[in-house]
Amino acid sequence: MSPTLLCTSVERSVTKDAVMADISTSEVSVKPGEEFTMINTSNYRKKTTHHGDKYTNRMKPKTGLRLPRQRENRRTKANDRERHRMHNLNSALDVLRSVLPALPDDAQLTKIETLRFAHNYIWLLTETLRMADTFGQIPDHLQQHYLPASQGCIGSPTNKKQNWDESNGFYKGGMKRFSFCILSHNQQ
DNA sequence: TAGGCCATCTGGTCCT
DNA sequence: AGGACCAGATGGCCTA
């Protein structure tokens, strides 16, 4: 496990209340046909905000053939369940995003980025606890990787992509409101 | 305009 | 039998 320097936020916008709210809304149910409302819409990509009925009935059967009525009903119900399932999955991802270090208001981690970032963030917290346990405090050699808030804040949603290390799931550079660095371990 | 990301549909498989 | 889960296909939106 060889630490490498990464970046994320310590200036987290997640308050204790927000965390509790996330816990209380972790079970989000969306009924089939019901308009889906994202949790934390401020954190959600703008392009998804107009997903009202954008995709509704967009997909046509691959063949022009009409399915038998009973099969069609089964398919419709299965589609509703699948939609509902995916909405719940997205809700869970939103909850996860909300407890991760904050991003610029108009940016949002993709699904894969969210999972990788969460992985590294958990690793950082674990490592921090371990260090504190071992040394009684976070050692200097670790603290030196924590940038002051005034540094490394060059980012924008555009920069976010440029700074993102796809293979490891971390930020290589600073971003707005991103004010400290995460140590990442090699995942292989 | 190409590529990335996403929502949705669909059929297959597994489980209850 | 029906629901959950999964992966492939499809097409729309957005950005570089």
Model description:
This protein has 188 residues and is mainly α. The protein is built from five helices and four strands; from the N terminus they run βαααααβββ. Strands 1-4 form a two-stranded antiparallel sheet. A two-stranded antiparallel ribbon has the order 2-3. β2 and β3 form a beta hairpin. The relative contact order is 0.22. It binds a DNA duplex (16 and 16 nucleotides) through α2. InterPro entries: bHLH_dom, bHLH_transcription_factors, HLH_DNA-bd_sf.
Beta content comes to under 5%
> How many strands in all?
4
Give the overall form.
rod-shaped
- Major pleated sheet: 2 strands, antiparallel
Low-pLDDT windows of residues? 1-65, 144-164, 166-188
Distance between the termini: 9 Å
Order of helices and strands: EHHHHHEEE
Task: Enumerate the strands of the largest sheet in spatial order, edge to edge or round the barrel.
Answer: 1-4
**Average residue-wise pLDDT:** 53
The assembly state of the depicted protein chains is: single chain
Supply the number of helical segments: 5
Structural class: mainly alpha
Q: What proportion of the residues is helical, as a percent range? A: 40-55%
**Compute the gyration radius: what is it?**
21 Å
